[in-house]
Design brief:
mainly alpha, 23 helices, about 0% strand
Length: about 425
């Protein structure tokens, strides 16, 4: 992780445009939004964007003149990262319904994210021209001016948004950002506090308030804010980076290293997820991410990924062995054995033999476990355990000499095996 000497605040973009089927918060209803088809909204809420896209395209085929369907498809495209298709759909929606200020606002939001600021401002202006009491485009104009470094002008726009909607949480957060950039830390803190009073789970406001507090030397409270942000959004690495920086300033080295390790793990996870999004049928990438989750003791997510990998590549030895290892982690020895056998049919390698040995040990087939461990060339405590367990079985059946030989093998591998497993 690269450490920075200056911690920067972030504005809140999500929710100010068309990233979800839910309409943005406004002081007054400038225009009653058409409802998103519930079957599409449900798929979007579940994160099934492919299914949602297929469903909305079916609806468009039946009603090609319904602007709301193009607006919804634009939102799906935007969430998938296909901004060009998102813009094209909003263009079509505006063509069908040029009096809907939401469509101009949403298109402006996407254009702003593409750094096409002049076009974005024109759309926000048009949205306000159609609906002067629509608070959202004022907030977005404020964001655009922040992007240009025009913080005083941004505050004027955000003031207008808050006049129209005194409970506009995003606008408080964004105005706090602009105020902090102008050196008005007290005003910024007031706005972040207002945002959190309105929405106690507003993760960006926690992050921004933490950065502000760090900037003015209030390190203990900054740590509390970053920790709150982590609890609300545990998959975001930036909070760990910020808290790590504070811990280093406080000379709490062990805590800083722990945050740095977590940051690096999350960054790797993000990189793998991005790669999988671009290559969803790459079994090797899915195995990589499954391994990443498994090393972090998240067997559930690891299994989800490896199941997808096996479905794509049924003969992948890496995927089969990893799935078997995950099954071992939850004591599903039969499934682990089945995966080991399947992998060995494809390629008799040490990893597959090793997995079969562990599975057989769990299934109490000690002879098969010992045989598999030998094929895997393993000499460790698990091998010692297999010999020890076998000696107990032999002893119980009256085969004292064979039991003694097996115990001798166990002790040779692990002198403390009897104490460890008794």
């Amino acid at each position: 992780m690269r450490h920075t000497s200056t911690l920067l605040l972030v504005v809140f973009l999500a929710g100010c445009g068309a990233q979800s089927p839910k309409s943005p918060t406004a002081a007054t209803t400038h225009q009653a939004p058409e409802p998103v088809p519930p079957e599409v909204a449900e798929l979007m809420d579940q994160g099934d964007l492919d299914g949602a896209l297929t469903k909305i395209e079916g609806l468009i085929a039946k009603r090609p003149d319904a602007s709301v369907y193009y607006s919804v498809r634009s939102s799906i495209h935007h969430r998938r990262g296909d901004v060009d298709s998102a813009i094209a759909d909003l263009n079509k929606a505006i063509e069908l319904n040029p009096k809907d200020s939401r469509l101009f606002n949403n298109r402006g939001f996407i254009l702003m994210g593409m750094q096409r600021l002049t076009e974005a401002m024109a759309d926000f202006d048009k949205a306000i021209e159609i609906s002067p009491d629509y608070s959202n485009p004022f907030n977005n104009r404020g964001l655009l001016m922040i992007a240009r470094g025009q913080f005083a002008s941004a505050i004027e726009q955000l003031d207008r948004a808050l006049q129209l909607d005194p409970n506009y949480v995003d606008a408080y957060n964004n105005r706090g950002f602009a105020a902090f950039q102008l050196g008005a830390a007290d005003s910024a803190l007031i706005d972040f506090n207002r945002a959190l009073k309105l929405n106690p789970n507003y993760v960006n406001a926690f992050n921004n308030r933490g950065l502000l507090r760090a900037g003015v030397g209030d390190l203990e409270n900054a740590i509390l804010d970053f920790t709150s942000a982590m609890m609300l959004d545990p998959g975001n690495p930036k909070y760990y980076e910020h808290r790590c920086e504070i811990y280093r300033r406080m000379s709490k080295t062990e805590l800083a290293i722990a945050d740095e390790n977590r940051h690096d793990w999350l960054m790797r996870l993000q990189a793998l997820t991005t790669a999988i999004q671009s290559k969803p049928n790459d079994a090797n990438l899915l195995v990589e991410r499954a391994t990443h989750h498994f090393k972090a003791n998240d067997s559930s997510k690891a299994m989800d990924d490896v199941q997808r990998a096996v479905k794509i590549a049924p003969d992948s030895v890496r995927a089969l062995v990893l799935r078997g290892r995950i099954s071992m982690d939850v004591n599903d020895f039969k499934s682990a054995f089945a995966d080991a056998e399947a992998a060995l049919k494809v390629e008799p390698n040490q990893d597959a033999f090793s997995l079969r040995g562990d599975a057989c040990l769990g299934l109490k087939d000690y002879d098969k476990a010992i045989e598999s461990f030998a094929e895997a060339r393993r000499i460790d405590n698990s091998v010692a355990e297999a010999y020890y367990r076998k000696s107990l079985v032999l002893q119980a059946s009256g085969q004292q000499e064979a039991a003694a030989d097996s115990l001798k093998q166990a002790v040779a591998l692990d002198p403390n095996v009897e104490d460890r497993l008794r």
